[in-house]
Amino acid sequence: MRRLRCDEVLHEVWGFLDGEIEETRYVEIQAHVEECEGCGPRYEFQRRLMTLIQIRCKQPLPESVRQRLLRLLDE
């Protein structure tokens, strides 16, 4: 398994959380966020944010909103 860079992981975190990526990639990202002190907290924040949005909206997050959130989180 190749070592992922943090920017790769954070770029794919929404697909990871939605289960929209291949199983091999999922395992790589999961291993990274469990080990990485930088990505772990950011991943956890995004996971909680996504859960809250889904509970409140009761429907999948539109892609345009997801992209705006990603831009804001990157700042």
Main sheet? none
- Distance between the amino and carboxyl termini: 30 Å
Strand content is: under 5%
Poorly predicted runs are none
Secondary structure class reads mainly alpha
Given the C-alpha coordinates, what overall shape results? globular
Q: Helicity range of the residues?
A: over 70%
- The number of helical runs is 4
Number of strands: 0
Question: Would you write up a description of this structure?
Answer:
Helix content is 76%, strand content 0%. It has 75 residues and is mainly alpha-helical. α1 (6-18) packs across α2, α1 (6-18) packs parallel to α3 (39-57) and α2 (23-35) crosses α3 (39-57).
Task: Looking at this protein, list some descriptive labels.
75 residues, mainly alpha
Strands, helices and their partners?
Blueprint: H1 6-18, H2 23-35, H3 39-57, H4 63-74
What is this entry, summarized?
This protein is mainly α. It has helices spanning 6-18, 23-35, 39-57, 63-74.
